[in-house]
Structures
1.
Amino acid sequence: GLVVDEERTRVGIRRFDVSGAGLRINGERLFLCGTNRHQEYPFIGFALPDEAQHRDARLIKEAGFDYIRLSHYLHAPAFMDACDELGIVVMNCIPGWQYFNRADPAFTALQYGNIRRMIRRDRNHACVLLWETSLNETEMPAEFIARSHAIGHEELPGDQTFTCGWTEGYDVFIQARQHGGCVNVRDRACVVSEY
């Protein structure tokens, strides 16, 4: 009768429907109010304790947001757990910003590996709505776009995987407000990723 070890796993069940007509979560149409988050703090950088990760998620929720773009890298597992708990949905992103090295195949291989590691680490989090498998605001070759989108679906098969990126070729188009946002996008799902 003596417990010597214990592990708890939180489970969340949800169904996303994403289309040009909007977003539904568990059948309910929603308009998400979102923000971006960087997980860097003055004087401590990324060395934020789990309690502070949870506090950030709680403060974001209390401020009226229900969607967060995790800019531009994986955030702490404790933050992901807090988003699951608080009912916040996220766009999970690979690291990279305004750079693509066409001359070095190792760069491309690294990014493909980043996509696989991101999805393998976080695919059981109910909070993940979108997987940004593109590089933020970056011109990317067509073969990279096609392969990065395909890897997203290889790592998480089924109809609940939505890749997103700044160009054609992903399930969801993302665009910064300062670059035009989603105003003229009518034929596909679009998310304003920065405002």
Note: The chain is about 30% helix and 20% strand.
2.
Amino acid sequence: ANPAHIIYEAYIDQDFGANKPASQISTASFQAAAQTLYDEGFGLSMMWTQETEVEAFVKEVLDHIQGVTFTNPKTGLDEIKLLRDDYVQANCRILTPDNSDISDLQRKVWGETANEVSLSWTNPENEKSESVVVADIANVANQGAIVASSRNYYGIRNKELAEKVAWRELRQSSY
């Protein structure tokens, strides 16, 4: 299913979900996210068993798709935003010492980065977990060793999508 639809249903379902009124949700933001996910071929197959809170389930879906939900302070509506490179850099506000006060800035050093990601996904042909592994060879060379991290995105049921998400995770981990 489309992950934006999964989250929307988890929010509004009266029997199993959070039972939020649909009027409290920004339909436009969910439709936009659903279209982006559709265009990316990003479908998930997950079942919420109610053993966890609905919020934890939604967070798990958001982790799979690299998204966030929040209440828009202007409208009061719950929105979803996918973290994508979908902005115009020239339109971004530039922060300088004249217009901002940076009190705590931290940046990772090479030793705090991972240079290999192993991502587990579910093969729908046999319902077993499989893994894809991707590596940043420049980071490996810089650190002199493989520094591995792993992710379990069991809701992904397509190897091509699993590889794409593994590269996304590696870009974040190795930066």
Note: The mean pLDDT is 93.
